[in-house]
Design brief:
Elements (H helix, E strand, L loop, with lengths): L1 E11 L2 E13 L2 E14 L6 E11 L2 E3 L2 E3 L4 E12 L7 E7 L1
Antiparallel strand pairs: 1-2, 2-3, 3-4, 4-7, 5-6, 7-8
């Protein structure tokens, strides 16, 4: 069983940090705790219809069971979002969003 608890912090409109405490229990008497941090941000290139995101997750301490330590899996996650605006004649503006990761 693994439990996580975290607290997010927004540094700027396009950046954020998440701090988390992690606890894992293998058997009733074998448990480990650790701490980790995630960093993420958005980049808006000169193309106003495009946004690119990047996150680095699980930077932190090892989970140590007795004498053996286990590192959290370090993850690099990226994604992009593009939006297209369309307004037919005599109509409201429509927005189409496309995203991928």
């Amino acid at each position: 069983m693994v439990t996580k608890s975290g607290r997010g912090l927004i540094i700027a409109e396009t950046m954020g940090v998440n701090l988390k405490g992690i606890s894992s229990r293998v058997v009733k008497t074998k448990s480990a705790t650790g701490f980790a941090v995630d960093f993420g941000g958005l980049y808006y290139p000169p193309l106003e219809w495009l946004a690119i995101g990047l996150a680095i997750q699980n930077l932190g301490t090892e989970l140590k069971f007795i004498d053996e330590g286990h590192r959290l899996p370090l993850k690099f996650v990226w994604g992009s979002l593009s939006e297209v605006f369309w307004q037919p004649k005599n109509s409201a503006k429509h927005r189409f969003s496309f995203s991928g990761s």
